[in-house]
């Protein structure tokens, strides 16, 4: 019978380091055991495996649908940017200078069995491998924009970029990563700022209602803005270890890039003026956010909206006759569930015990497992197993238990699947929200601030009126940073209103969000 099967014990090679023991290693173990990605032979780069890429594809689809619903279209621009072009916007170029990979030659030669760069193939001008695309895109926009009738120009690009990071971690920070970057042009500052706010809200919607990660919205400080931006807005999520992760950014660029690329348009009054610009982006870092927000010591946990496989069905048998009957029923159940729109995998592999199959689908984050054994056939029932069950004991963080089996009549189990998936989706968001709130403090003194982060930390709402040098002081002293200057409605009601800067004592109009961060 399905309920009598035991999971295969984890071997040393398969085991996952407990979060409480080593959070960083736990994260890497999840990436490997869930078969999401591997390290590449190129330092700092990763190979995204099919299961990990399928999650990214679902994120892409959710985002792309929203981009198109707000009037944006996709295009593609070159990977290589002439150095002189990147250097046109001085602040922008300086901001990325230390992370740029540069191509200087275009050919190899082989001599005496050794392959090396052909010194005669040196490029007339070095090419920077795209760290971001503002400069090369605005070079094109100069040819595309002449009149107010050409505006707004709303373009998004799905691409890879290279930033030569010195310290890397799979998905969170790699030398090459996948992302989307939106680049828009507008006739007025007001329209551009509306675009910045609109796209930040798109990111927040995906983070909360698709990924199940609650976020704080706000402005970056001057020192944390995107290079060349007049304003950068971000969404900040809290991971299970209490650290913040910047999950998306939206930038108001003013006329800086239009001026450096000489992009002007004839307005309705027949006058030439520079256009106003925005850019905005999210990356494969979001996969890392999913892992660190939801997963447990048994493996990956995914919200149903992003699960590549929603349901794994495992036939259980001992004899050839039982194999034929349970497998046939598994295929029949799968067909009915697929009609509801679910991605279903029937695991009828031979040579593997049921427990080994359970463990595989559990560590890969499949939301629902269905077990079908001979007795289930006799009773006309299905054994439905949730990947997780969330309980809320008192005021502590909601406890996540490994599994809960339910034996339901076949028709009822299938009919209830949409409601069950919806429950799982909502529970993950609520669990993350409760955890974040329980690790958030309104803090008014440095003594309390230091104690909070010494004891584990989380999100700290503090008054701030310091300079960039003061931000550096906080970073060196406590390893914390200002994650954002929040929108007014993001600050807890108890923390609203003016006060005194936690470091300088100077008057502060409102609180900022401080935390340790990835």
Plain-language structure description:
The protein contains 15 helices and 29 strands. With 518 residues, it is α+β, with helices and mostly antiparallel strands. It folds into three domains: 27-79 and 131-294, BirA Bifunctional Protein, domain 2 (2-Layer Sandwich), CATH 3.30.930; 304-437, Anticodon-binding domain (Rossmann fold); 440-515, Translation Initiation Factor IF3 (2-Layer Sandwich). The longest helix is centred in the C-terminal third of the chain and has 22 residues, at 417-438.
CATH architecture of the largest domain: 2-Layer Sandwich
CATH fold category name of the largest domain: BirA Bifunctional Protein, domain 2
Write down the domain tally: 3
> Which CATH top level class of the largest domain fits?
Alpha Beta
Bulk shape: globular
Count of individual helical segments? 15
